[in-house]
Every structure is written in C-alpha cells, then in structure tokens.
Amino acid sequence: MNRSEVEDFLYHEAELLDEWQTEAWAALYTEDSLYEVTSPACADPTKADARNTLFLISDRIERIRGRANRLTKKTAHAEYPRSKTRHLITNVRVTGDEGEETKARANFAVYRTKEDTSTVYMGEAFFTLVQTAEGVRIRHKRCILDLNSLYNQGRLTIIL
Amino acid sequence: MALHDPVREEELVKAEPAKGSFRVHRDAYRSAEVFQREKELIFGKCWLYLGHDTELQKKGDFHSRRVGGRDLIFIRDKKGEVRAHYNSCTHRAAKVCRERSGNARNFTCPYHGWVFSSEGGLVSQNAQTGYAEGINEDGHLDLRPVERLEEYRGFWFVNYNPNAISLYDYLDGARDQIDALMDHTEGKQIILSGEHTYSIRANYKLLCENSYDGYHLFPVHASYFDYLRDQLAGTPGEGLIDKTLASYNTAGAARALGNGHAVLDSFVPTGRPVAQWLPSMGMGTKAEIEARYDSLVRRLGEERAKYIAETQKNLVIFPNLVINDILSVTVRVIEPESHEKIRVTAWAMGPDDESEELRALRLDNFVSFLGPAGFGSPDDIEMLEICQDAADHTPIEWSEISKGFGRAGDPLYAEGPPDDEVQMQAYWTMWDSVMRRINTLEVK
Which CATH class is domain A3-145? Predict the structure, then answer.
C-alpha cells in the first residue's frame, strides 16, 4: 500500500470510531490481530511486550470484539452517556511493504468529551495492515501515548 | 457556598446498633474543611503505603512519590538500606529529585548545587566561603528523613507521627492477609514491570468502599459478566458464571480485621493464577497451576492452601491502600489531591518464579478487568464520580451504610456475608475514632 491508501484506510477507521460504529470497527481486525495501548509509565513502549509488562490495553480478537460489543451497551457505565470523540490522524508514514503486509506509523490526537469535560489523548500509532480478499485489515495496532500518566484524562474508555 | 451547612465534627458517623442503622454524613465526602482535618488526623497519624521492596532492586534505585500530600524519595541507599527522604532541599526548598524513578548515588539540587548522598547526608554546599564551620554539625541540613519508615513482608509504609504505634501493631489482622499473599510462592512475590496511573473525580473514601464492595457486583459489572459468558460459550466452562453468581452470597465473607482494615472473601469464577485453574485459562498453564497448588498444600496445609488458591480477596488497609488478590493481583494506592479528586497508582504483583506463559496470563487477566481501560474498573470509577457529583450538588445529608449492621459487637472485628457492608462500617468506625481523637494511634 502507498501512503494515500494507508491514509484512506486510517481515516475510515477513525470515522467508524467517531460514529460509534464499534462493531464495524472490530470487523477491520484479523483473526490473529492485536490492539494495544502501552501504559504511559512504560520505559520502552515501542519494544515492550504485554506478556511481561503491564499495558493499558492488550486485546486479541476476542477482546477486541468484546470491547466493541460492550461499548454498545448501556451497562458499559463508563461510556454512558456516550462520549463524543474526534480522531485526528496525521504524519502518516509507510515504513515497510512486503507482499500482503504494510507497516505504517501515524500521529494521532483523539479528543473526548464526556459530560462537560474535554480531554485529549495524543501519541503515535504503529500499524501492521494486511490486504485480504475482503479488503484491508489490521493485524496489529499499537498506540503509544505522549503522556506520563492519565491524571488529566482520568481513564481510557474510548477506542484510540 | 454549599447547599448544606457543615455539620459538627462528632456527627459525621452515626451508628445506632439497636436500630440496625449506620449512616455517614455526606460532608465526610464533600467538605473541603473535613478534608483539611483528615490531612492532619488521618494522613498525619496513620501508616501510609510507600512502595514495595522489590521496586528497589539495586543499590541507588529510587522512586519519587507523593504520599499523603508529601513528596518523598523512596530509595535503597548505596549501603543497601531502604530510606525515605522528604524531596526538598534543606537550603531554599527546591525539589532535589525531579525524576519519577532511576538510580542515583547523589542528588544535586539544581538551584544552588547542594549535593546530598543517597543516605541523605549533605555532601557539598557548592561554596568555598560564607558558611560558619560546623554549620551542619547537628545534621539539620541533611535531607529530612520521614518520621517513621517500617516494612512488613516487603511492603514499606511511612508514618508522619514520630510517636505512632508500630506498623506491625497497626496492621493487626491485615498481616494475615499479607501473609496469604506473600505465601503464594516458594519464590518471591515481586512488583511487575509497568504501572497504571490515573485519576478519579471523587473522594478517596469512595474508592476504598468500592474496592471491597460485594453488593455492587451485579449492577455495576453486568457488562463484564456478559463478556465472560460470551468467552465461555461452547466451552466446558459454559454456565459456570451464572451458577457461581447465583450462590455468590452463600459462601465467603466480609471480615473486619481491626484498625479499620477489612477483607472481602468471595468466589467468582475468573480463574486465579496463584493456583486455581479454569478451562478459560487454556491448557498451557494447567500443569503449572496445579503444581503451584500442590506446593501450597505441602507448605501450608490443605485448608490454608484452599483459602489462598480459591478465594478472591479484596483487602483495604486503612486509610488508602487496596490489595486485590482476584483474577490477578493488584496493589493500588489512593492519593487524595483534594476532597473530590484522587490520583490512583496501581501495580501488578506476581511470583518471580512463574513461567512466561503464566506471567502473560496474569497480566492479561489484569487488563481484562482492572485499570483505567479494563472492562471493570472504569465502570466503578463512573459510579464514584456520580456519587461525588450528586453529593456535592444535592442537600441530602446522609449516606446509608447499614446492611448487616448491629449483629456483631465490635464493628472493628465484625463479619458478615459478602454483600453486607460490615467492611465499610469497620472503615468508618475507625475513621470516626481517629478524626475525633478517640484513637490517637500513638504509643501510650
């Protein structure tokens, strides 16, 4: 994939999230996928492994679907009433392209408004995208926040 | 101006055993004035958790932490001794340590260049002239050590009252819970890599109450149980959730442990890496978990082994430390910023001798439910924030914490079924007696 194809795809992912179409978002992930958000306290977040370091989020496909499904429910109290979100994706770079698989990086800023409080989650996302018969899918997404804690944001209950 | 007038000090906790009534005035959550008194009496007189021994692996390792509103350096000095210094230059107040953690032989104040050793001694004033000889003979210019620093099985606590009772006595029945946790393994329990740091717009006591509340489980965590049901559908574990939840209140107990500490012992079928294997955990860890159970039996006997392996334990050590030994182990400390805002730091704990696979499962369990992005804790947090918001903006005076009250004699050692509120009654009874100076927590 070239940069503009990657951009189109990431904009599509962002749009699904901002429209709260979480289950359609989960359908963008492959069966062997991993969606991760490292903890702001993590010493080396690009190399860290959720198998031996505490992350904020480390979801394989079952939990990606579980997260997406939970967010549709009124009993997901943390997101009821739902937040408003706006995902901004910039500085997209293709860093590897081998066969079906494309690696890319992008900067992001995600704004969340819950009740009357707005906060921002900013950072860089690392993607492994794959071409399938159904279209482009995400095999791996790791978000690394430019934060030292979640003291300002409180919690992370939206999808980045 | 608040909607409500602050009530008198002695009326914040109202216990009427004959009526089975236990009430807490909402000013205890919403009043800045009450919080000012708490800073002096609760955070000035109780033992407060600082950190775990295994966070300081090497000589010189340090963490800078805020504990009860005071900034401290938690350090293993170059001789290997654990210390806690106030993080402020004795010259003109600047912070001498601006990093969250690291390794240091000395701390150099960035303002005028005073240098302090890891033991706290003033090594250099960065000046050739002007100071009288022997100006620090009495050591008053050394980094100020905290008044008291003691540990129990690797858990280091500070106390800002030099006359406080020992940590050992303070912990009372909570020691047995710490023993149960530290005895998980023949090896060593360690704080694992990484931490969660987040905030909640609520009074710190609301999170304490929530951390061992068996009563809230079904309404608040319905969506988590839905998720577990979905995960187990079509596996041998199918039906397990509903079966166990139906009998939730018939086994286990909420138990007060003295000095305001309490534990909730309960049974929820999440599987426990310590030594309770369930099909949902995967075949890869079955043999190891069973071997760990055998080790518990060998070391501690069948009854204790069963308690350690099978019981979910939600422990609150008064006033602000939570240790939840549930589907994973979390050590969670609650630092109040004000009467209506807290910072939470949470770590995962696990044995140093577990396999990579079991470690991965432990951490996976942790993030599935716990932390600011899990499927459980954020829903709790939302409840605390709406409690605080509504308490702040309605005139209603009392919160009702009466469930199970009045059956036992001393609330500080009461016991009841898991969805009673005896653990909170114990907490508030202690809080009340410290706030009213009935219990000074001092050596007589």
Answer: alpha beta
